[in-house]
Fold this protein.
Amino acid sequence: MAKKTEILLETGTNELEILEFHIDEQTPAGPVPCHFGVNVAKVMQVIESPRLTHPESATHASFLGVIPLRDHILPVIDLAVWLGLDKAAHDQEVVIVTEFSQAVTGFLVSGVTEIHRVGWPEVIPPSKALGRVDTASIVGLVEREGRFIQLLDLEYILADLDPACSTRAWSTSAHAEARYSALVADDSATIRTMLQNNLEAAGFEVLMANNGSEAMDKLQEVKNAAHDSGKPVTDFLDVLISDIEMPLMDGFTLTKSVKNDPVLKTLPVILYSSIITDELRHKGESVGADAQVAKPDLDQMARTAITLISGAGVVGS
């Protein structure tokens, strides 16, 4: 598999590439494949199943143990167990090795299908009518050749396996000296709640958007209010904080739209994602992001925003 820096598409095209895989669910009529997808940028490689068995001492039924891989010792999760699917086991199972949020994790699945290039506007909201999988773990659905591919929220899954990480993401000791306002765009209700708690604890007024397209609509309202009053946009909103991976419009495209707008371009923008790494930060820089935060460091969001708004110094990217 190619390196992540080669896989990522040109920044701001509102596209991503997904790795489609399947879990074969056992039914009275025989195995039936359930189709899922993850962002290719989060995938290190795909390996043969090490044939682990669930240890009795494991804290979660989906945990299969750990394996060595290069310089990592990584946990392996039986994704079917976590999703509540009765998997039909076979000899060709594989482990998708992922790297995001500064963690390397393996997910056991029945097999890998192919890679698709997808436009975020193609991603539709998850439907409760499709399958038995909890929609909280599904970012959206993509239709390909008559089948629906369910895009998994891997961060949600890991947060469920390690609830303490959610608590860490709300906490902050920062506090704004003025009453700042922030618009947060994220398709995950879990992350929106964590960021709202973090920012409100620091004294922010917080507006929420479920994706980049909805955020752009709210920014247009701010732009209109600024125009009608003859005041700058920053009198109405102090900072835009956006996830990168979102249906309809991703964070890169949202940032690019803001920075190319003659009125909105003065608005500070913070991008965050589980796929922000040292070698990928140039993606956010290329669309004009003023700061970037990796998802494990969401507890630093309020402090980063305050530093950026107040001009107290250069924000570390």
